[in-house]
Every structure is written in structure tokens, then in C-alpha cells.
Amino acid sequence: MSDAPPRDLQRSMKVLGALILTLSAATPASSVFVIVPDVLSQAGTGALIAMGVAALIAVCVAQVYAELGSAFPLAGGEYAMVGRTLGPWAGFAVLGLNLANSLLATAVFALGVGPYLAAAGLAIPPRDLALGVVAGATLLSVLNIRTNALITGLFVAVEIASLAVLAWLGFANPERTLPQVLTHPVLFSGGVQATSTPAMIGLAVAVAIFAYDGYGSAVYFGEELHQPRMGIARAILWALAITVAAEVIPLAAALLGAPDLKVLLGSDSGLVDFIGVRGGGVLKRAISLGIALAIINAIIAMVLLTARQLFATGRDEAWPGPVNAALVRIHPRFRSPWVATLAAGGLAAGLCFVDLKLLLIATGTGTAVIYAALCVAALTGRRSGATDHGHHRMPLFPWVPLLTLVALAGVIYADWIDPAEGRPGLLIALATATAFALYYALAVRGRGRWTLRGPQDAFEDQSSDGAS
């Protein structure tokens, strides 16, 4: 038996394991209680329409992810797929956006744990708590991927239970009908009820898209999945279906069952307060604890996927030699990219010292830009034949990516005309993508042809009895 250290990640998961990790990254409970309130504040009861429109866009983007992921089941995720279809310039631009989004989102989630633990009766200084949560999540992420799938699976069960409680409280005590909510959307401006216009609902779609984001995270676990070319597509599509249902159904229930829409729509804690009104203080504290656990679960998932992307960049020699050599180190026992994991956690912890408002602005628009790049990659991959070996072929090609590009253009335009958060977020995203493209031109291109690498069995369909 060779004593040489392992060089590749270990294929030890079936689709269920990848699905659980992907749902953890999508974190439906965190989205409902943390992100959906922003949709409600912008669109009022029209939030349900905005979430529906965003779901249609997400279905199209998921098909793009599934086709590209089944062709390139690699730990590099989006940057590996874009780099192989559109070239290194685009690959590095998406790499910058991906790393920024992942690390910023991890810090945002970590800083968001405090209020929910405080509501559950555990008051800890927010930044101290954020650093502790990131440190704990990083140490857990060093463990074997199957262990992490088990741990995050328990957290996902808590998330779904919390959302089921919200849905039950709403549907059991309806104050209005679904047709009323859909045909006469309202919001409150300055405490006065007004009609939620199509323009307001359209602006809210950008936030709603972000609420679903995470279903494509399965691509990062492609090198640890048995039969990856088939499994990746299944994990992505199932993750999207579960995420949409887990977010839309409780939202609809709350809108139907809220005794006072002004209270529900007028506060970031409106959904949690609704649980308190309908279920009492004890249930409200229990759900607040469940939300905190859901956020912690999302942080674990974000560290896991960021680590795998950093591992892939080291393998692709995207950085100076010593950095590359460190990032590709595999733990001999846990078969995890342990140095890349520690790096992901350390970078996210550093961002916890940045103002939360700035972090929120910076995470806003990058997702839409990445989605657009993936749509172009899918179109180009079909034309060039680069994706012909994939197992999943999206239906209605090329209309799915083309119509998605049109919808994303509308989302990006909506961000541009929002001077408070949307435009700064878009400018930050463009600056990040440009900086990484310039890094490629100045630091990487001169070394010669840049080669995107992967494990030898990346495109083989393997059968195994390994557990999820």
C-alpha cells in the first residue's frame, strides 16, 4: 500500500448526500425569515407574485446548471464550467464573483445569527458570536464529507419543521383568500395602505431570486459523488423543487393568515412576530432558535463549497506556487481539502469585521451576473460541442437560456436604477469581475497556457455501494 498522500477528493456520497448539502446552502428557513422580509417590504402582498416569477427564472437557471454540471462535475463549480466553455478570461471573472459571493454571504449569515439567538433567550455580542460560529463551522467542515452531510441533514430537518409550523399556523387561521392576495396586492407606505404596482413587484424579483439561490451548489460536490454526471443534475433539480416549495408555501400561509398585514409587512421580524401572535411566545422562541440553527447550517455549507472551489483553484494553478501547493492538500484521514477549508473559514471570519450594511450591498447583484454567464456558457457549450458528453440536456433549448438572459437583464436593470443598494452592488460585482480578469492577464497568462484540471475519473460513471 502506498504511503503517498491522497491527491483527489474521495467519492463517498450518493445523490441524497449531495442533495442535503445543497439544501443546506440554499437554506430555505434562513431565506424565508431573513431575505423574504425584504421582498415583502418592496412588494407587500405582491411578494407572492415576485417569488413566483423568481421561481420560473430559477427553474430555467437550474436547467442550465444541470446541463453544465453533468458535463463538468468538478469542485471548481461555476468558474470551472465557464472557463471550459467561454475561456480563461470569463472563467477568472466568474471565479472572482463566486469567491466574493461565497465569502461575503458567509459573513452576512454569521452576523445574522445573533438576533435570533437573542430572541430565543441567548444574548451574545453579534461579532463575537459570528467569529465563534465561523470557527466552529470551519472545524466541522474539515471532517469527511459524509459526516458533514449527516450533520447538515439534521439541521435541514429542523429547518423544514420550522417552515411547516409557519405554514400550519397560516393555513389553519385564514383571514383572506389566495385570489385576494394575488389579484389585489397591497403594501404600506408611511403607514398608509397602497397598491403594489407591477414595477414594485418587478424590483422585488431581484431579491426573490437571491432567496432561492443555492440550488446550484451541488456542482461543488461533484468530485465526491458517485456517478456524478447523472447525480449532479438530480441533486440540482430536486434541491430547487424543495427550496421553492419550502419558501413559497409558508409565505402564502402567512399572507393568508396574518391578522394585521401592516404588522406583517412593516418589520423585518414580521414573520417571526406572526408565529408569536398565532402560536404564543414559547413557540416564537423555539422557532427563533430553529432559524439560528438554519443559519449556522448555511454557514457550514458555505465553508464546504468555498473550500472546494479554493481547492480547485490550487489544482488549476491559479495562484503563486506555494499557495497552490497548500490549497490542494488533502487530509489523509478525512479526505477533505483541509488547508482550503481553513483558508475559507479564515477569510470569512475576516469579513465579519466589515459593516453588515456594506456586506449586504456587496452580495446583491453578483448572483444575477453569474447566472447570465452560465446561460452564455450553456449556449456556447452546445454550439462548440463542449457539453455533448453530459448526461442532462435541458428541454426547450435554446429558449431556456435565451429567455433567462432576457429576464436577468431586467433584474440587472432594476438593480441599476436603485441608487441606494442595487447600483452600488452592481458596480462592486463588475469591479470584482474586472479585477480577477486583469489578474489573469497580468499574473497567470504569462506562465503559458492555463489548464483547467480535474480528477482522472471526473467523467466516468462509477457504481458503488457507498452511503449517502
What structural keywords apply?
468 residues, mainly alpha, Amino acid/polyamine transporter I, two-stranded antiparallel sheet, 20 helices
CATH topology: Amino acid/polyamine transporter I
Radius of gyration: 21 Å
Beginning-to-end CA distance, first to last residue: 27 Å
Q: What is the CATH architecture assignment?
A: Up-down Bundle
**CATH class wording:** Mainly Alpha
- Please state how the strands of the largest beta sheet are arranged side by side: 1-2
Q: Given the helix and strand composition, which structural class is it? A: mainly alpha
Name of the CATH superfamily: Amino acid/polyamine transporter I
**How many extended strands?**
2
Low-confidence blocks of residues: 459-468
Domains counted in the coordinates: how many? Answer: 1
Specify the number of helices: 20
Strand content: under 5%
Please trace the helix and strand order, writing H or E for each element: HHHHHHHHHEEHHHHHHHHHHH
Query: What is the 3D shape?
Result: globular
Average of the residue pLDDT scores? 91
Sketch the major β-sheet: 2 strands, antiparallel
Helical percent range?
A: 55-70%
